[in-house]
Amino acid sequence: MIEKLIIGSLVVLLYFDYQTLKQDNKSKKIYLMISIPAGYMLYAYLSGRNLPNLDEGFQIIVGPIAEAITSWLQLK
Amino acid sequence: MHTGKISYWQMAVLFQVYMTGSALINIQGPMLAAAQNSAWIAMLLANLVGFVILYLVLTLHNEYPDQCYVNQVRLTLGNVMTYLIIIPLFLVMLYITANIVYGMGQYFTTSMMRETPLFIFHLLILITSSLTAKAGIEVMGRMFHLLMYILLFIFIIMLILPYNTYEITNLLPLAPQGFKPILHGVYVGFGFPYMDILFFAMIIYLVKQKPGQSINKWLYLGLLINGIVLTLTILCSLMGLGPLVFLKKFPLHVLAQLISIGEIIERIEAIFGIALILGTYMKISLLLFILDQALSTLFKVKASHFIYIISAVVLLLSLTMYKNEIELGESGSFLQTSVTFFFGFLPLLLVVIIAKVKSKKTA
């Protein structure tokens, strides 16, 4: 419960931080753009679901190469 | 782009705390697991690779001394390529920052404060670091100066006090399984901490240029000191703990537990915790500043606007990316090097080569 309260107050603080951008529309757009993945992760965290994340994304892209290199290095 | 300016010495201090900060605590475990008894040789070789990365970064800095890495890429490859290179690099930096935060949190939840929830550590360090990053490079340059001395003092104390446990024979056999484990250690060291040098390229331009002087020698010297410090921590861990060292995630913590001088100075691992917080705090502050710098320069907007939202993203990433410390360990020593190589090192090499060709053509 305390955890959710703290995270809730953080979201409010971020809203105030967003408001300080005032007329800077370009910055506002970028701020919102970053907030989308933040919202996604917040949902994943609060719901306790194991959703795809950045680490898994990198695993898909470079995982096979990393695996090939490390398994070669670990060969005696 | 940020506009504050700092002196050569302050930049050298920032570089030192940035490179040594969290690595002082986190590198021994993965390095010893990969290279076993020859981990200290692997550390020195990885440091040598670090010199290559720093050389590339400084070559680019000398071509465009008043620009950060984002603008250096823009001036060399054009706008579209800049987006293609910097957005993945931005994600890599987020990933590494989250890894460092998680590393600190898991140290506390596994060895010192087991009942406290992980997110408390992540939250507190990110709030403090984001406020520091928001204060700007000049404040960090002044503040980290003192903190670096404290960190180095703790480091010296931690290595000198357990002197009675050191057995030089524990270093032998040097490389019982051949050269491959050493290469494995270099592979680990390349991803963390030495590829982080590239991220530092975002802020090197903030140094106050003086005619006839260069930042290059300061940074090379800083990197050399970093290599010596990290190698010493591995050597002392090996000599102090023997074969036990390969089973420990934080060998320096165990080494601190062994300190016993006249039954007065005992169990000083809490000081190790202080060093860990200090190092991680300084590194994360600089990384948040660098992330904001990359984003604001990429989209050509005013700097310092995004530090808090980036901190929130890092917090949530660190809380959701891994289910346990084993996953973090696998990611850090297995995936991080390949990720930084493909999204950081290769583009850097390309940019340096093209920048050199361009400058030769215009000369």
UniProtKB/TrEMBL annotation, chain A:
Q: Tell me the superkingdom of the source.
A: Bacteria
This chain belongs to the protein called Holin
| Organism of this sequence | Fictibacillus norfolkensis
Taxonomic classification: Bacteria, Bacillati, Bacillota, Bacilli, Bacillales
Automatic annotation (TrEMBL), chain B:
Q: Which organism is it from?
A: Fictibacillus norfolkensis
According to its UniProt record, where is this protein located? Membrane
Q: What is this protein called?
A: Endospore germination permease
Which Pfam families did the record assign?
Answer: Spore_permease
PANTHER family listed in its UniProt record: SPORE GERMINATION PROTEIN A2
**What are the TM regions of this chain, as residue ranges?**
7-27, 39-60, 80-98, 118-137, 146-166, 186-207, 219-246, 270-291, 303-322, 334-355
Family recorded in the similarity comment? Belongs to the amino acid-polyamine-organocation (APC) superfamily. Spore germination protein (SGP) (TC 2.A.3.9) family.
Q: Which domain of life is it from?
A: Bacteria
Keywords from UniProt, A to Z, are:
Germination, Membrane, Transmembrane, Transmembrane helix, Transport
Membrane topology listed for this record: Multi-pass membrane protein
